[in-house]
Specification:
150 residues; alpha+beta; two-stranded antiparallel sheet; 1 helix
């Protein structure tokens, strides 16, 4: 009994001719050929699956390593963040104290200068009174001298 044969052709047709570009003869395979072909394909799929599983395991290991690194870096970042916040609060406190101190010094200096100004104004007022009195005395003496001279 002959096995049936199938022909697969790719043909270009136009009104003038039929041109065959590809012609394949396909015959029905025997049971042993089919089993051989399927076993080969099954073996290839298993090898590919094993290869993919190895790649997957490697990628999972890399992911685990990266997650650990990420967790470690996150912990380091949190420590640095806490440290910087602490330092920032300390510096803010120091600046606040320094600001208050400078403010007190400036207020004291202002009060001292105001007091010196009042003292100078009082001294200037007394000197002005003394000068006015001296001028008045000198005018009187001058008028007395003028009266004596006349």
């Amino acid at each position: 009994m002959s096995k049936p044969c199938f022909v697969f052709e790719i043909v270009e047709t136009n009104p003038f001719k039929h041109l065959c570009h590809l012609s394949l003869r396909l015959s029905e395979g025997g049971e042993t050929q089919i089993k051989k072909h399927l076993s080969l394909k099954l073996r290839q799929l298993k090898e590919e699956q094993e290869s993919n599983l190895q790649i997957l395991k490697g990628l999972e290991q890399q992911i685990d390593i990266e997650r650990k690194n990420n967790a470690q870096k996150t912990a380091e970042l949190e420590l640095l963040k806490c440290d910087f916040q602490s330092k920032l609060q300390d510096m803010q406190q120091l600046l606040k104290i320094e600001y208050q101190t400078e403010k007190q010094v400036l207020l004291q200096t202002k009060m001292d200068l105001e007091q010196q100004l009042k003292q100078h104004q009082m001294n200037a007022g007394e000197k002005e009174k003394n000068f006015l009195q001296q001028i008045k005395d000198l005018k009187e003496k001058n008028s007395q001298c003028d009266n004596h001279v006349k």
